[in-house]
Design a protein that fits this description.
Strand content: under 5%
Distance between the termini: 42 Å
Structural class: mainly alpha
Number of strands: 0
Largest sheet: none
Helix content: over 70%
Number of helices: 20
Shape: globular
Length: about 450
């Protein structure tokens, strides 16, 4: 089933229909061999209704709407321009401003593709005009854009938290613990906070190092007298409101005041208020944002429904038992099993999107890993960083193609590939830090929620 799905995907079929169609074909073969009963498909209806009525997953369209509204109302564009003016007069300052805006957009949208495309359209021409090395400029933009994968409120973390909640309950029941400590999306949001900003620090450190060692690769930006005069007003208009919205969304979660779903509603309303304050709110903009939110959310949930059918057939045919036997037999125990799963997800990141990977792999492997003693919050954060690294890695990282689609012809594909390699290595450093010091992911949730 697994390799059949990969082959069909490589032929160009849509992911959701590939998962469901391949599962139906294998289930039909199993029925002919008396290994599968078609009546089991009747359980899918309750699963689908459960997913659609899950209060936690309501946060997904709300956060998507928030990100689309910030992009459509040009708040994100103004934020990038203002940050560039604020730090661009320093050597390497323009690169630092792009990294900081990438983190802010990640914390306000959680949509990797939209962040990379937005920054590619706005900041890449500015960095090239300022004399930046094209390789460094491309690396900064791609790396910063993928921060939406790990910095909360990432939509990936919402689904992963929901999956881990069920997987943890399943694993603890298998171990005889019928009253386990629950795992929530809030735990995963808080756990990803420190590792996410460690990556931001690594990116900024590399940019500063290059600005010192190779000044010509990251020169200071020249500002006109008009830009200097308008800077305080731009900071007050563009930077302060956006920061206030991010603090309201993340701060309410970190302080335990609101659930992720409640904070998502605050973010969605706040984005509309900011757009209206900038006179960028109209029926046409609202309709565009609602349509884009519907399309993105529908795409994700259709993939989820196809993955549910895949998991049902896979488990019924005994695939989960075979997988558990394989992982527990690997040398090194939990460490060996974790390394295998992480390596598998990294390779799948070359051909599948994040949601497809977590919907297929996490429900099958997470219960086994959790039974072997792996911490669920640490597992979720490690998977997020791992997939973020995969999406940066040449030659098939998704963020590279997003940037290639909007980069000017003067920027070659080889420059994009070479530019991201140092940031891939920095990602691996961050991944190794969280691997060897699990408290980077598990300490803050214990402080906030205990």
């Amino acid at each position: 089933m697994f390799f059949g799905v990969i082959v069909v995907l490589m032929l160009g079929f849509p992911v959701a229909f590939t998962l469901a169609g391949t599962s139906l074909i294998i289930a039909g073969i199993g029925w002919l061999l008396d290994a599968f009963q078609p009546a089991l498909f009747g359980t899918l209806a309750s699963r689908y209704v459960g997913a659609m009525t899950n209060e936690v997953l309501v946060a997904v369209p709300l956060f998507v709407f928030m990100g689309v509204m910030l992009e459509r109302s040009r708040i994100a564009e103004q934020l990038l321009v203002t940050m560039a003016q604020l730090f661009g007069t320093l050597r390497g300052g323009l690169g630092l401003s792009v990294i900081m805006v990438g983190a802010l957009l990640a914390a306000s949208t959680g949509i990797v593709g939209a962040t990379v495309v937005t920054m590619g359209l706005l900041s890449l021409p500015a960095m090239l005009r300022a004399g930046y090395d094209p390789k460094l400029a491309c690396g900064i933009i791609c790396a910063s854009g993928t921060l939406g994968q790990i910095i909360p409120p990432s939509t990936v973390l919402i689904f992963m938290g929901d999956i881990l909640q069920g997987a943890n309950a399943q694993a603890q029941m298998a171990l005889g613990n019928f009253a386990p400590n629950p795992v929530s999306v809030g735990d995963l949001f808080v756990g990803a906070f420190i590792p996410g900003f460690i990556l931001v620090g690594l990116y900024m450190g590399w940019t500063i190092l290059l600005a010192v060692v190779r000044p010509k690769s990251a020169p200071a930006m020249v500002m006109s007298s008009d830009d200097r005069r308008d800077l305080p007003k731009n900071v007050a208009v563009a930077l302060v409101p956006a920061l206030a919205l991010i603090v309201a969304v993340l701060g309410s979660i970190l302080a335990g005041i609101a659930t992720p779903t409640e904070s998502a509603s605050v973010g969605a309303v706040g984005a509309m208020v900011l757009a209206a304050a900038r006179r960028q709110f109209s029926y046409a903009i609202l309709r565009h944002c609602m349509m884009a939110t519907m399309q993105i959310t529908s795409m994700v949930f259709v993939i989820l429904f196809g993955a549910s059918m895949f998991a049902l057939v896979f488990r019924t045919l005994g695939g989960d038992a075979l997988l558990e036997e394989f992982l527990t037999a690997l040398p090194g125990g939990a460490t060996g099993a974790m390394l295998f799963v992480m390596g598998l997800m990294f390779v799948l990141g070359f051909i599948l999107d994040t949601f497809e990977i977590i919907f297929i792999v996490m429900p099958l492997t997470a219960p086994i890993l959790l039974q072997m003693g792996v911490d669920p919050v640490w597992l979720g954060v490690m998977v997020g960083i791992n997939l973020q690294t995969s999406f940066l890695t040449p030659p098939v990282g998704f963020s590279l193609f997003y940037l290639r689609s909007v980069a000017p012809p003067s920027v070659t594909t080889s420059q994009i590939y070479r530019g991201v390699i140092p940031f891939v290595l920095l990602q691996m450093v961050g991944l190794a830090m969280v691997w060897w010091i699990p408290q980077l992911a598990t300490w803050l949730p214990g402080i906030v929620f205990d």
